[in-house]
Automatic annotation (TrEMBL):
The chain holds residues 186 to 547 of 557 of the full protein. The lineage of its organism: Eukaryota, Fungi, Dikarya, Basidiomycota, Agaricomycotina. GO terms for cellular component: mitochondrial intermembrane space. One of its GO terms (biological process) is lactate metabolic process. It comes from Tulasnella calospora MUT 4182. This is L-lactate dehydrogenase (cytochrome). Its cofactor is heme b; FMN.
């Protein structure tokens, strides 16, 4: 179907599922084990309702914000999701270009399909990019990568901490892309298969809080800790002077199954420790597909919301135009939501505009 027929992000996801190779679809869609966290990310969002205010003169709506001082036209960013090249030959470069056109930030995965030089080359002059780091067993390797991304002009480091080992992603495990048929025959039945297997093993399982200190010594760039899943860890992370942002995330349900929904952790943090939001910027991701989802998170104190799969799917289905369309759909939905609930700027978004409801609807 033509891109113009796409009304929302789910429409684009449906197209991606149809046009992608089985291997690529399984890698992108994969979740851990029984997918409870994957599905709960969506389900939890349905429990947060708005308390819309009326007669607020919503003719002019400003959706812009700053993320670590970098301007963003919307309170969203493209999250670091590996191997954009599985979906489209131009891989991350398409997302870089669409992010520039749409005025949003993009976090480049440690496991990007394109080289860092290619990605930097696809940038607009002055387009800020974030680099997502997994720490390698050999710290020297990571130290060199950090030097390189600083030289290339990346503006922040997103340190992912929810993946000491990969989650057991069963769609992906069943795919088993092994180059050599014999090897495939001989692969033990429970060995990791799929795309994940090819990128596992290189990163350190023994990362700890000491590595946040190590990272602070390696880079002057602001650090975002990605993959925080409890209020306790939000508080710990916010103690490090180099840590300027925390991203509440369960990796889109790809890591610990039964990790809590990100929106619920954000809500608990806002209820119990509102002061944290003044100390560090708080971001959230996992299952955000609608402008309403994003505005809810902003009301609960999130500076911005990341999306992972949606941009990969759009890139796979329609390339750069699809990624741009995804941003524009979200822009329209965010503006519409703000107008419906009486917000003309994101700075007016407050927790009082949200009500948690035990009851929701199917
Ligand atoms: C990811 N994610 C991820 N995170 C990260 O820090 N480094 C990475 O390399 C990847 N790779 C990756 C690949 C794929 C295919 C997906 C779907 C996700 C997690 C990503 O940054 C983000 O946390 C989730 O994708 C957010 O959830 P949604 O928006 O996909 O529901």
């Amino acid at each position: 179907p033509p891109l113009g027929a796409m009304i929302n992000l789910r429409d684009i996801e449906e197209v991606a599922k149809k046009v992608m190779s089985m291997k690529a679809w399984h890698y992108y869609r994969s979740d851990a084990e029984d997918g409870y966290t994957y599905r709960n990310n969506f389900a939890a969002l349905t429990h947060y309702f708005f308390r819309p205010r009326i007669l607020r003169e919503v003719g002019q709506v400003d959706t812009s914000t700053f993320i670590l001082g970098m301007p963003s036209s919307l309170p969203i960013f493209a999250g670091p999701a590996a191997m954009a090249g599985l979906g489209h030959p131009d891989g991350e470069k398409n997302i870089v270009r669409s992010a520039a056109n749409g005025g949003i930030l993009y976090g480049i995965s440690s496991n990007a399909s394109c080289s860092l030089e290619e990605i930097a080359g696809a940038r607009q002059p002055d387009q800020p990019l974030i680099f997502q780091l997994y720490i390698a067993k050999d710290r020297k390797v990571s130290a060199d990568v950090l030097k390189k991304v600083e030289c290339l002009g990346f503006k922040a480091i997103m340190f992912t901490v929810d993946a000491p080992v990969l989650g057991r992603r069963e769609f992906d495990m069943r795919t088993r892309i092994v180059a050599d048929d014999d090897e495939q025959e001989n692969a033990p039945p429970n060995s990791k298969g799929g795309v994940s297997a090819t990128i596992d093993g290189y990163f350190d399982v023994d990362i700890g809080w000491k590595d946040v200190e190590w990272l602070q010594r390696q880079t002057k760039l602001p650090i975002i800790i990605k993959g925080i899943q409890t209020v306790e860890d939000c508080l710990l992370a916010a103690e490090y002077p180099g840590v300027k942002g925390i991203l509440i995330s369960n990796h889109g349900g790809r890591q610990a199954d039964y990790a809590p929904a990100s929106i619920d952790v954000l809500y608990e943090l806002r209820q119990t420790h509102p002061e944290v939001f003044d100390k560090v910027e708080v971001y959230v991701d996992g299952g955000f597909r609608r402008g309403t989802d994003i505005v809810k998170a902003v009301c609960l104190g999130a500076k911005a919301v990341g999306l992972g799969r949606s941009f990969l799917y759009a890139n796979a289905a329609y390339g750069e135009r699809g990624v741009s369309k995804t941003i524009e759909i979200l822009r329209e939905e965010i503006v519409n939501c703000m107008q419906q609930i009486g917000l003309t700027s994101l700075s007016q978004a407050r927790p009082e505009m949200i009500k948690y409801m035990e009851r929701t609807v199917e």
